[in-house]
Amino acid sequence: MTATLTPPAAGPAASVRAGAVPRRRTRLLALPEVRWAAAATALFLLALPLQLAGAPAWIWGPLYALSYATGGWEPGWEGLKALKDRTLDVDLLMVVAALGAASIGQVMDGALLIVIFATSGALEALATARTADSVRGLLDLAPATATRIAADGTEQAVLVAELAVGDTVLVRPGESVGADGRVLDGASEVDQASITGEPLPAAKEPGDEVFAGTLNGTGALRVRVERDASDSVIARIVRMVEEASETKAPTQLFIEKVEQRYSLGMVAATLAVFGVPLAFGEAFSEALLRAMTFMIVASPCAVVLATMPPLLSAIANAGRHGVLVKSAVAMERLGQIDAVALDKTGTLTEGTPRVVDVRPLRERSLDEAELLMLAAAAEHPSEHPLARAVVDAARERGLDLPAAEGFTSSPGIGVRAVVGGRTVEVGAPARLHAEAEIEGVGEAEVEAECAEDADDDGVVAALARELEESGRTAVLVVVDGTPAGVLGIADRLRPDAAATVAALTVLTGTAPILLTGDNPTAAAHLAAEAGIEDVRAGLLPQDKVGAVRELEGAGYRVMVVGDGVNDAPALAAAHIGVAMGRAGSDLALETADAVIVRDELAAVPATVALSRRARELVVQNLAIAGVFIAGLVVWDLAWTLPLPLGVAGHEGSTVLVGLNGLRLLRDAAWKRAAADGTG
Predict the structure, then answer these.
(1) Statement: residue 123 has pLDDT above 90
(2) 3-state helix, strand, coil in the chain (%, to 5)
(3) Which of 424, 423, 450, 446 is nearest to 435 (CA)?
(4) So which residues are the catalytic ones?
(5) Using CA of residue 226, residue 231, residue 236, residue 238, what is the dihedral sign?
(6) Could you tell me how many helices (H) and strands (E) the chain has, helices first?
(7) Which of 185, 309, 474, 646 is the most exposed place for a label (fewest CB within 10 A)?
């Protein structure tokens, strides 16, 4: 069990061991949206100081014109294409409003509007490209080549894509498994955290299933291929992420729900304001001026800006407190959730195994410190996660570790070393006994040599069973052939996990559920500590997506919180996905809509509460903007609204709602959200 995992050389295997996906980053300027937005912004920033400094219009005017062209041509063109489908795109409306502003002398205002929309489009394109990069990079988890064993026993290095169902491949120590299959021969431990999220390597013996992209330990395995490369679990994760991203409901901000009706109504009203007076004999210039004034005061710019500042302020405030929310849409969606699904390893837990129990046998002379010291000294040369946990526990207690001699490691069984003249073995209780039988020693003989009375084996079994039933991994320590004690190792619950679960229950009105690839016993024990009753364990990535779809089918808007590659499909399928930042895989970080950078789980309910506060301010701002627009429109239609006064009223309402939204930038807003998030 506690076999050595020899550290592989730096490269793809090392990246897999850390749960990382090799990076395939799209260059920033490779995206046309980014290039056009950058050009428009640069031209605007060149023109603005020249205009404010009183330079002649022939100097800054062409710069503004180029800013209009570079930033507005693409949304304008897309809007024109949308008209073919009888759809009025708000981007086209914004371009028309910007041109209308320029036509009556408000050149700077129109250019600013163009820059804002171009930048928004660039950010959306960048987010889409980065997610696609990570999905493609996920395929690098699986090795490019594998060692196939021919019928005559010879070994051939072949491309993984050339493997067929029924082929036999050899997986050497430290290599990544090349294909999904079943072990024919050999014993080892395989780190399959990238697939199941389990924190500890899983022991593999003949008959056990292995997955492409997982990392083999120190034993050699002969594996029969059972799936084509295109149908491996890794390939299915890629497809699930892509499909979930494509089929996810179209993202809409609150105001966009009435976008079409408002836009069509404003265009029709502007034409009427221009055409009706003209038909009754009003001068063309006066009718045009009235129509342009109407278009400015009725423009959705103020409404759009009424929506964005609260959401952007909430994003900035959350960012200062270690939460990266990737878009205004994501910030709005956070406040809409009414169900939460949590991953276990690395999310509710710290993701690192620790020694939580030290149980020396009462009949032996060793105390807890001596037992832990001997086990840690024997495990010190090993790189296995359990070995590191034992060594770390000894160091935390300040124990001095003597040098180990004659260190040996048996894959899937344990380690043996001589410490201070005593032979120390550390491993799984059942496997150490099995190894003894392999060496020709019967069970009764083992008990006779290892115990002063015939009950030792029963005592060890009872201790191991007790630890395993409480969610621990049992590790037997044998000294000079005699069982000396049992260590209990477990992944530790985050200190704020229980409080976070309780806070999310209050916020959503529904208790969170636990979705994990770990074994049911460990999952149930940890869920009980965290206060979660609905536990779904032993799940593969597609099972997690199925659980999310089930909740959505029941009418819930689901937030998924996870950190691993195996969580990425569920993060993409959920209404909102949140990833833990420090231990999160690249794919999870890119797929998620928000990232908890500092891994402070309590920040999740605080951010949800902040999002709900932002939505409240959005409603307030829409009411303010609506009052201003209605008042100015009535003035323009019933009497004659001077253009400068109309622009001042329009801009004044924009400033007012902007300042109202900026209230969420204050630290007091986060403190209030954190208080709301704790119930």
Answers:
(1) no
(2) 55, 15, 25
(3) 446
(4) 343
(5) positive
(6) 24, 22
(7) 185
